[in-house]
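Format is sequence with structure; example below:
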Amino acid sequence: MIRLSAGTAIELGLLNKKSDIPPTTAYIMVGNNCDNKCAFCSQSIESNSRKDKLSRVVWPEFTKEEISSSLKKYNKNNIKRICIQSMSSKEAHKASEEFIKYIKKEIDIPVSLSAKIENSDDIERFLGIGADRIGIAIDAANKELYEKIKGNNYENKVDFINEMAKKYPNKISTHIIVGLGETHKEIFDLYTNLKESSVTISLFAFTPVKGTRMENINQPTIESYRKVQLMTYMIDKGYKEENFTFKDGYIEDIKLNSKILEDIHKGYPFEITGCKNCNRPYYNERPKSTIYNYSRPLNKEEICLSIKELNIDINQN
């Protein structure tokens, strides 16, 4: 089974609807069933959610020929990458491999693969057939949460991601979900650990999905998320722990110099992060609701709102 995110299908002309923020990546989901037991995911083997959804996004089904043809005829300049979200199963991995081989013969476009990969041989195989980046999810930012929500060994996963990032420079990505129950300090520690190996890291806000074990858990507050966005933005820029004051594990204050203040007033820390040309429109939010990840540069009104949501007195720094 091959599915496109609704936004991708709209952008490629396969779905007759409108979208106010065009995706800059074509998002493709491959596989019929997932063997994972992730407590937050609609695709989990334990979930009763609709299987045409991932997070809050709907994914209609198309053939590989329809997808290839639409990409060949695509004459806009928005989509610059394909990102394949593979289910965790032998069937899905095989289907992903076949699709990458097929699409690379048809179209010259960078391809990323996000999948449950647990050995170097599989990474080498997927890179060898045309994928230029492999995403290996970590999701939870501490051992207890990871093993409760994901059901796997936390240290092994972190070590594997770091090891693969060193073996395959600039080829390994991961993502961290904010709001699963972790503290800011735990995100700081994990993010810093992964950045030392040059892992590309995307931030997501936890999104409750009906039919999952975590359907009744709230999204993180926007203040908490904004502080994590600023903290991780600063880590990316080389700032260290001494720039952050934590109280009971949560950010109480952040030391801001003139350069970071300038970036805040341009809205940079609040823009979406991760792989190049990946903007994930409305993955964590609905249009006209609270925006966690801005999928484009912020306007003045949005910058002012984000600074207010951050709830740090930037005039005293």
Q: What stands out?
A: The chain is about 35% helix and 15% strand. The CA atoms of residues 34 and 88 lie 5 Å apart. The longest strand covers residues 172-178. The two ends are 53 Å apart (CA to CA).
